[in-house]
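Quick one, tokens below:
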């Protein structure tokens, strides 16, 4: 028995099970048109955001990889470079929120609240403390 893999057969297999919109431009365009008609999602902006998030996340990851595994220094210049990439990630994240019609504040609040019951409790305590502080600061002296 041979352990050699025929990559041409594998490529044929992958192509055969790929969705029609993945391998046929007309099917892809028809699917995009249908999504655009059936939803309130900004399809071009969503595609831009998805591609940008993946690309910019990879650029951030590349810097970190080089620092940890290839001897690149963890210095101000590289921290600044990572800061720029994080800004790009935020840009595309905001585009994704816009494309989906989502409030960015609600996206983060949902993530934080649903992520952990301890965060729910801390959020409630923080909100209560802020409300109490605001009430105290707005109170008039007697």
């Amino acid at each position: 028995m041979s352990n050699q893999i025929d990559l041409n057969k594998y490529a044929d297999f992958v192509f055969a099970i790929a969705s029609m919109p993945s391998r046929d431009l007309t099917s892809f365009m028809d699917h995009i048109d249908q999504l655009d008609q059936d939803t309130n999602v900004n399809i071009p902006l969503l595609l831009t955001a998805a591609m940008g998030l993946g690309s910019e996340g990879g650029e951030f990851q590349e810097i970190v990889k080089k620092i940890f595994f290839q001897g690149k220094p963890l210095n101000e210049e590289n921290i600044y470079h990572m800061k720029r990439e994080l800004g790009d990630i935020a840009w595309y994240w905001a585009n994704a929120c816009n494309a989906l019609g989502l409030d960015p504040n609600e996206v983060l609040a949902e993530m934080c609240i649903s992520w952990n019951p301890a965060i729910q409790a801390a959020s409630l305590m923080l909100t209560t403390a802020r409300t109490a502080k605001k009430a105290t600061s707005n109170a008039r002296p007697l």
